[in-house]
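User: Please predict structures.

Assistant: First:
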Amino acid sequence: MTNNPILRRELKSALRTRVALMLAAAYLVILAGVIWMMWPASGVYSQAEQASRSIVLAFTVTQLMLVILYAPAFAATAITAEKEQRSYELLFATLLRPVDIVAGKLWSSILCLVIFVVLSFPFFASCFFLGAVSGKETALIYLIAVVSAVFFGLLGLSISALARRSQSALIWTYLAILLVCALPWVPYVLLQNWAEGAKLVYSIRSVSPLAAIASVLIPTFRTPPGLAAGVLPTPWKVYFLFVAVASAGMVVFLLINAYWPVSSRIRPQAKTIDDPRELARRKLSFPFYLFDPMRRRRNIPDWMNPIFAREMRNKAFGGGIWIFRSAYLCFAVSVVLIALVAGQLGRQTPDVIRIVALAFQIGLIVLVVPSLTAGAITQEREKMNLDLLRLTRLRAGQFLRGKLQVAMVFLLFLVIGFLPLWYAILYLETNTLEQILRCWAIIGATMVLTLATGLFCSSLVRRTAAATATAYGILLLLSVATFFPALMPGRIGGSLAELIYALNPFVCAIQGLTSEYFQRLPDLWARHLQLSLGLSLVFALAALIRVRRMLSPES
């Protein structure tokens, strides 16, 4: 394996970059910060001091989330980068066998993630010698971390083999990671009181790596209430079985794709339609009436932004395909939630149903919306269009406004897809109009922040894939890492905890719409709007300054 030239080239090129150095530094700093903030005051393990045990839980969850977050950066672009550079076919023209090419790509992606897991050994050793965890638990924790690194590396590589562009591969990989980590918890949240299906619900939950980690460190997590010990399999064993079966399937798929690659479809060039009957039919059918049915170019009106006109004509509603798919998904989830409300399946409280609806909407925004602006500037760089833009009279503000207007048009369809979900919430008749408007303000601020973050990252880096990954990292830091005070209530409290929670759109929306969760905190929605919109303004101004420098004749 060490003689594989693909493996050696990929490892050297990945680990020698500044991005890898920055990721490693951030990884170590975050883990060291977790241990420093949660270290027991007495310095020794005590059964009465929960901090000695919770430090291990916080450390392992943080480590697992970082490994999951880093997986797409190394695996999701491994094959698509070759396709974009038009060197993928050249690999098969060498003396290397297809299995060697697959093995090189596979092991390079996995080893990069495993190296990050190994880097945490010295920090975890302090927890081990503190006495808060046994040797068997330590072995299981790191086994779950390594298995997760292998699984998510395979997942990213499989999606990279299917995708054409690195940006699409990153989006699909993060979406798949969200489904694996969060989707198994949805049946548990909604149906945990369903006695007849308890075994099925708890077995589905065990597929998530977070459930596997929790089952190692929390003994009460292994056996649900009402069931005898040993009735259900241990969650980490179920997770290992799922990973083994799924990984074997993905390896077989990668080999099949290498030996019998699927040729990319070449879209035929569209012809101008001159038949009056065909034009009349298409004008009345969706979605042809949304744009010019004759596929001809009219003069751009004086009042219209030329960047907006160009983007709408070139993309023809194809660039925002993620928004259309997300809108369809919103409708499907809305039907399920309405059926849940009407049938009272699982006898859940209205707050649980509202939490699922809010988490789905905000999670979809964080995952999908950054893709609308993450390539706004980098794609112009990749297509060598900046020199042409410098020759025009367009200013940096016009350029950014045109890009944002296109994103707003696509975002409108996602907002329309959210409406049935809010019908399900209104059906419960337990929220006032003021609460719903506050929640919509939080959702709107989250949309603005995701658009501004993608635009800022697109102006900061040179490649669309790197801009997309950076935007996801910033948004996941704001929406997931800000749950950290819940893991250490004794160490982070008061005004600091309120400030961290105010950055989290999930916490602020759930607090404003429910009556049971986060009610001990003061109202966070106003502070959240100030922080989100202020941060969006900073990102937008930074992007404006960067674009102004790019379009200046001296650059």
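Second:
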Amino acid sequence: MLDPRLIEQRRRENCKSAIARGLESARLPPVLSLSRWAEEHFKLSPETSSGSNAGDWVTLPYQRAIMDCLGCDDVEILDWWKCAQVGATKIGLAFGAYNVAYRKRSGTTWQPTKEDRNEYSQDHIDPMLRDCDAVSEQLAGDHNKQGPHNKVTSKGFLGAKWYIRGAHAGGEFRRMAIDWGHLDELDGYPHDIDGEGDPSTLALVRLTTSEYPKLYRSTTVTSAGASLMELAIASATMVFEFYVTCPHCRERQRMYFKHLKWKKKKNGDLDESSVRYECEHCEYEWRFSEIWRSYEGSRWQSECGHWIETTNADPILRDPDGMVVGWPRHIGFKCWSGISCLYPWERLVREFLAAKDDYRLLKAFTNTRLAELWEHEGDQVEGSMLFAKREPYSRPPVGVLAIVTTVDVQDNRLELLTCGWGRLEEGWVLDSHTIWGDPRTQEPWGQLTDYISQNYRREDGAMLRISAVTVDMRYLGDYVIDWAARRPHGNVYCFQGSPNFEAQLVSPPSDKRSRFRGVKVPVFTVGASVAKQVVLGRMQHTLNTPLREAADGYLHFPSTLDEEFFEQLGSEKLVRSMVAGTAKYKWVKLRDRNEALDLMAAQYAALTLLRPQWEVIEKRLLGSEVSIEDEQTQRAQVNHGSNAHRTARRNALARRTRNPGRWQR
């Protein structure tokens, strides 16, 4: 007979086992950090990833701490000041999916414009929903069909909602209560949205009622004084940078571009096999192929010595002595391309060498590769120094392949500048001309029509016509539009300048109707401040380069130009001032007349619009056979304007035939 005490013990064990089995379904899964969740569930879609990277997500050493801090509830604001191509877009995508599908928290991803919003939703989120089962199975609707739970502007999940908005209007920040927000490419946002405030403040308002609010801001930075990230990260309690270890001495250090070393071949090209990174401690020079060894012992560390330890759950913040400390509310991260195993140092150096003498390329390299703010220099060029660089030519030299005329309208005259352009934007000033007369009358416009109709004979006998004519319509714009509407050949462009330092060199056109004919004429907005910076850089390059070495970006001036022309080229200076603690930049006039500088700036804008195919033009001028493909390419580049542009030209020609009018020459 069994012992009653043994029977009672077995009964208790059976009861405990039954209770445990019953409670198993209520057991909470282990809390995963964002990086661990992504490695288990997140997929890289082939449409938005290079072929070799599509498939399962692999967290790189410099990505893990950022991702896990995004998933840490103790951190409320995280700023990522980054370079291009370090996986930030994918991390932002994984961050959103992690919150709505795994943590059941609603949130919003903002993009700079409406077009960016649509592209992000359709080209990134939709493929991710198709490829990530752990996310798509939480979607309230069918991810293959558009519906109330699957729209471009929002995705409905079981227990959460994902909004996708643009930052182009104040309404994009209203009518939502969310737990997290992502301001992607922050430096592309307006500083003040519809007069309601800056985008960060508007986004934080949406997080007011959340128990675990999280604002994530990421961007490739732009210019000092104009960068929203520069202002945002300045209020962070700690800013972390990535420290690697030397493969030789194992000392930990932050990487700098100045420590990259290289040599050139005898022909001046980069010797890619010579590119090394020099350790600041032992001066050992290691190759890019050793970068994974430098990741051993790497970590994100702040200037005060605090560093981040990553785990399978929330990351741990330690002080310089290794003691665990609490997380601050607001942290930031900075990184540049040198730390990335995805971008070889050989390419980085090659890109720098190609950009170092070109303002536009160097600015892009500084922002997108070095992840540094572009500093506008308070600088100018002395006109007298350029005057000494004049050359004795009267016809377009052989290097000229395209000719551009730019026009500035004054109260009693039209100021003209005609330049020839060749490969790599080497330029030759051909003529500086003034047409006297009241622009409100027919006479000066008739003379302008005659002027742009002339042909130019190059020194080798080749004939060239003017490829493009641009007219600044800041003054007497109605008269400019009326004259441009009657030019049926489509090589006349109306410009209006923008003083914004972050404006594009040439923005897409908007149509304006002619006052006299009703013909629509496309008007292009030119970043005047940006174009003047290009001119300043090219003039400095010309001064620093001997004539015998003249090539890309060099400006040639004929001996027929007088001193007044060069004084006008140096008539403005770029200066920096502090306004309410923020750096502001502006062009300051040093003399009254500055038409030559404005006209030269318009020349570069016209080149951007024209986009000449130099090889095709050169073959045609030399009488060589031009392939059908070359002809189609050149035609596509020259006729790249909008349909409205071409329609306006056709309408102008038709009106000219039916009713010449008193203004038609």
